[in-house]
Amino acid sequence: MVTNIASRDVGRLIDEAVALLGQAKELLEAPPGQEEEDLGGKVLAEILERGASVSKQELYAIAERNGMDRRGLGGFFRQSGKTSLYVLPGDRVVLTPYGAEQARRYQERRPSIVYEPTIEYAKVAEESFAEDWDSDEDAVYDAL
Length: 144
What we know:
By secondary structure, the protein is mainly alpha-helical.
């Protein structure tokens, strides 16, 4: 009887372990685009793009536009640890060196615009230039 009960418990524990391992495997195999979005990084990057200094009202607008609640902005100004933003006298907020570093890291993680060259440059070139694109005179420069 003891063996029968212990056997059932071991079987149940094995089933639970297999289910947990399956969940862990699904999490590890999730596509990279499904990771949690870095809202703070987006806000800091936009401030950096605007010259690293904005008014408080601009900060609120940037946060709202990027999906961050205004109440979440306090973490940027925390006094313990590393602060990302510093309040200047008056109405301005400026990035700290740490905040600028976080903004740059976010910008580096963003997908960049990929330039795809076209062989039909004449279509996008100035019309007068495009007229002689394939001339013998221009062929000399093609070999360079």
